Amino acid sequence: MVTISRIVEKMVKENPSLEIALSKDIISYSKLARYLREEVEKEFGKKVNDAAITVALKRLKERSGHLYERKGEFYALEINTSSNLMELTVGKTNRLPQVMKSIYEFPELEEGCIMHAVHGNNQTTFVFTSRLEKKMKSLLTGEKVISEIPGLAQLSIKFDEKMFQTPGFIVYILKELAWNNIGIVEIVSTYTELIIILKENDLMNAYKIVQGLLF
């Protein structure tokens, strides 16, 4: 059954800035209710008063506010940064095993160059140190290049098993970056490491935000 509460929750969660502002209690419930009313009525199929939306917003704030009030509970062990990266995305290819084997043989990887490969159902994305560009493009000759993004950097956050098992840890970081208008190009994660790929000119600001959140 479609309810006003469910509609309001969906609309707020689709807008990270609204959700964070609500959870931080820095937005007027009545003004936000008036702002959302037209869309809520459209989905609900009938007239809705501001009071009903306000009640839904307050309940949502009570449920989600804890995600932004747990600074003492969330922490990281280490933050590292790397710049001068780029991204190439290609269509799915049956040559992928051969391509990956050739990449692992790059001597530059032993010298500290970065290489991430993210495999989707229909595409594969490579994020790597820019000086590998010529080698990568040569290796991928004949493949369908879908996207090419230069001028990237990465923020690597290392944490322990406790944080891995703590609900909301990664959301806490990503939504705070969104709140500060930092776009995320790619996310790569392992058991106790989160790597955020972003534009190079956002790197220092992102580092300061994450450092303030987790240290």
Briefly, what is this?
This protein has 215 residues and is an alpha+beta fold. 45% of the residues lie in helices and 25% in strands. It is built from ten helices and six strands; from the N terminus they run ααααβααββαβααββα.
3D structure, described in words:
This protein is an alpha+beta fold. It folds into 2 domains: 4-68, no CATH class; 78-214, 2-Layer Sandwich (VC0802-like). It is 45% helix and 25% strand. The protein is built from 10 helices and 6 strands. The chain has helices at residues 4-13, 16-23, 29-44, 50-64, 96-104, 107-110, 133-139, 161-164, 169-179, 203-214; strands at 78-91, 115-119, 123-129, 145-158, 184-190, 193-199. Strands 2-3-1-4-6-5 form a 6-stranded antiparallel β-sheet, covered by helices on one side. A hairpin with a 2-residue loop joins β5 and β6. α2 (16-23) crosses α9 (169-179). The longest helix has 16 residues, at 29-44. It is elongated. The N and C termini lie far apart (43 Å). 20% of the residues are buried. The mean pLDDT is 91.
Question: Mind sketching the topology for me?
Answer:
Layout: H1 4-13, H2 16-23, H3 29-44, H4 50-64, E1 78-91, H5 96-104, H6 107-110, E2 115-119, E3 123-129, H7 133-139, E4 145-158, H8 161-164, H9 169-179, E5 184-190, E6 193-199, H10 203-214
Antiparallel strand pairs: 1-3, 1-4, 2-3, 4-6, 5-6
Helix pairs in contact: 1-3, 1-4, 2-9, 3-4
